[in-house]
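Schema walkthrough. Field components (list of strings):
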Amino acid sequence: MDSAIVSREMTEALGVTAEVGGKSVISIRDVSKIFGAGETAVTALDHVAIDIGQNEFFTLLGPSGCGKTTLLRLIAGFDYPTSGELRLFGEDIARLPPYKRPINTVFQNYALFPHMTVGQNVGFGLEMLGRPKAEVAARVDEMLRLVRMESLKNRRTSEISGGQQQRVALARALAPQPKVLLLDEPLSALDYKLRKEMQIELKRLQHETGITFIFVTHDQEEALTMSDRIAVMSGGRVLQIGTAHEIYDKPTERFVANFIGETNFLEGEVAGEVNGALEVRLTSGATLSAGKPEGLTPEGRVTIVIRPEHAQVVADGTASSFAGKISNVVYFGTDTHYYVTLDSGDEFMVRQQNSRRALEFAIGTRVGIRVDEEAARVLRD
Amino acid sequence: MVDLPVQAGSLEAEARKDAARRNRLLSSPAILIIALFGIVPLLIILVYSFLEAGPYGGVVWHFSTDAYVNFLFQQDIFSGALTFAPAFLLIYLRSVLFALATTVVCLILGFPTAYFMATRPQHQRNWWVLLITIPFWSNLLVRTLAVMFIIRDEGLINDILMRLHLISRPITMLYTNFAIELGLLYAFLPFMVLPLYASLEKLDFRLVEAAYDLYATRWRVLWRVVIPASLPGIVAGCLLVFIPALGAYVTPLILGGGKHMMIGNLIAQQFGSGRNWPLGSSQALILMAAVLIALFAYVRNTTGKPTNG
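Field assembly_structure (string):
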């Protein structure tokens, strides 16, 4: 009973602060999580700082063991941070139990209650909050309509398919109108076609409910297509936070560039700076203008990254950044991948769209490679 | 070539016959034991309950329903008039109360224990199970006598309380209802803990997290998720405690001192000093019938209503 009161009080209190526009909903400040102690201690989260805004679809992206699920569990309240602050609308919630946080979770394996019907599952949260029966019933119907499951209200959860269970789990988590919805790899158990369908469904639900979504995934494609912003994590640290465009086009770390999409890495030396961009002299001797991460002035040897679609294969001798010999050509219908062994010995991949005007090059041909303007980026390492 | 399909068909039939023969062979020892030592004695008891008691025990082969009539009524020696005599019925009621109390207290004590065991790390759990089963390593009679030595007037508890000057005279515990109840609890607690543990160990603790996440307090999580999900274990534990507790013999005999009887003692008495084998047989059958009826009622009430998927 007391949880209901606390939550309602909290919701009201939060309602006031929420009107201060532009403030972040969830603010993770310098959070660390260490499991165990002494020599066996494992650092799962290492001074993580993230601010997530109102109505944002925020994704935590990284390989398994990167700490993304641990971070989600801290936000949900299943675990407490070793150090740092976790704020919800400015209020520190790091030590509140899960039932006192207006945050709900969609679990990886849905965790639907097997001894209850679909409707009872969806209504559980509101019932625990002590809402009147009529309100719970109306809200359950509304939620089931939202996820298009009205007809299965009285089914048992063991009698419905994986995709349907997924929808029920969503409806159950959304029914109490949480301030933040956490989604722990909710689509990983679905087959490809259903996953695509649910991706669209999730975006629609987020749009219709206006709730902040924090989505955990290891699937970079899923992250890119769905998120407003992405935090790329590895080894318990947040490597880069940004929009899908920023993460893809302007990766600041080798890990980020490598984890998301295909990439060419080239070594070079900083030769100077022109209009905020660095002039990098590559090992081949050619000079390339490359953007750099904010607040960083690299010197000496640097690595630059160029996406395969940000370069073109051109006939040798024409104005190009560097030259090499085509070692392999793979035809993909819409585009063709050229693998070029540069004069410096590096491998370079170019993804070129096929059009009637595009030139075709055979294996063994000497070609030049022209890099698009502002396509090259200097990495932080 | 032509008769090949026929051959194949007969081969298949042959194989099926072989399998049937093998199954019969495998199950025959168990069936034999159950028939010889389960069904045959039961039939003997059934027949005995409809006979007349012999003067020095045994039975006289003469049909009679006296054994059943005497369960509820007393027959006047001279007039033959029947008067309602609830002495046996009261012992049955007492036994049911003892068994119920044992079941409820075992459940209350056993559930937290089983929950604790099920939430230990995997490698520790087997040690806890081992600890729970240690009492089975020694005989129930020996363990019951040990309880007796602890609770008697000069026993461990009274001795300590007297030395601490908390009491001036020993508290009488032995040969009371309390002693019987204590003995029953001690004897049957493991039978409650083990099925509860088996059930709780399979519990998906993500369901517990999901309930916490959906604003359920710890107490509500217990009632709404943990208990419903572990219902099969609760039912199994209750049956394993209630049924043998109802027919307990050694515990009330030793700790009740013969003054406080339970059904088991009553039946034993009919075959011993009571020298009324038909009455003992009928009492045993009435107990069995009552348990069976209760079980059937339970099964009929729960089938159709699914408990835990």
